[in-house]
Design goal:
Blueprint: H1 10-17, H2 21-36, E1 47-52, E2 55-61, H3 62-89
Antiparallel strand pairs: 1-2
Length: 90
């Protein structure tokens, strides 16, 4: 098992990323919408909540939803890598 080079400070990450009033309001809105749509405890088999532009837009196919998220993450990494390489070549 590989050793972690450094332990994560989850409290620090929460303070940095999630504790602002804007983020708390956003998470509360997502939770309310999920309850309204019947997601908690009643989600149909193979379905998942679909997010678009920071909003829950409905229930959709779990496999497609997660594949789309992975595709977006891959594209973001590639874009960041291109920016880094472009800056390094200057």
């Amino acid at each position: 098992m590989p050793q972690k080079s450094k332990d994560r400070d989850y409290k620090k990450e929460y303070r940095r990323d999630q504790s602002s009033a804007k983020r708390r309001k956003y998470r509360a809105e997502l939770g309310r919408k999920a309850v309204e749509m019947g997601h908690y405890g009643k989600t149909p088999e193979g379905k998942d909540l679909i997010h678009k532009n920071g909003k829950i837009v409905g229930l959709g196919d779990r496999k497609t939803n997660r594949a789309d998220g992975a595709r977006k993450a891959t594209m973001a990494r590639m874009k960041a890598r291109r920016r880094k390489n472009k800056a390094a070549s200057k």
